[in-house]
Write a sequence for this structure.
């Protein structure tokens, strides 16, 4: 009798488990990915910003810190600093996974309106948005810091995000749909 009850329970579990995993998968959509790229040149960045700030992993494609600022001042942003894709259309509730494949830390901070990041010299004349004021000293910004080779998952309703060092390109705009 116990053997038949155990078999019946096991059989029922086999039928229930696929349905349970199907329901779980429907409630947990696959994350949308955003890739952060930059081409920081380690010697100039680390001399100015501290040891190991820039850990460039590219094969010979580098931008010095002075070139990055010079290009920004000239109104010709460095194309090697980028968040891909530039625009992201996702369904409400879809998590966004931001992966830093660049050589330096970045942030992915929620803002009310797009504008300048926390490094004024890279903002092409735009004022720093209030949510980014203070840079890493601002806990809301520091919480969204993504170190080289790491990732940040943003869950909940997607809103506009202000990637730092991305101020020279069209900012990423996450829309739900």
């Amino acid at each position: 009798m116990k053997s038949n009850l155990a078999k019946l329970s096991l059989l029922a579990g086999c039928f229930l488990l696929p349905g349970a995993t199907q329901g779980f998968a429907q409630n947990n959509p696959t994350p949308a990915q955003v890739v952060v790229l930059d081409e920081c040149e380690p010697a100039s960045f680390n001399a100015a910003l501290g040891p190991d700030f820039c850990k460039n992993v590219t094969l010979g494609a580098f931008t010095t810190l002075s070139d990055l600022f010079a290009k920004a001042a000239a109104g010709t942003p460095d194309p090697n600093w980028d968040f891909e894709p530039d625009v992201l259309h996702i369904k409400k509730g879809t998590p966004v996974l931001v992966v830093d494949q660049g050589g330096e830390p970045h942030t992915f901070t929620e803002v009310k309106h797009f504008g300048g990041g926390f490094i004024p010299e890279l903002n092409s004349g735009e004022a720093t948005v209030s949510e980014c004021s203070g840079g890493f000293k601002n806990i809301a910004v520091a919480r969204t810091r993504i170190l080289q080779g790491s990732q940040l998952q943003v869950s909940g309703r997607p809103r506009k995000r202000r990637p730092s060092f991305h101020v020279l390109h069209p900012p990423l705009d996450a829309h739900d749909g």
Remarks:
- The longest strand covers residues 32-37.
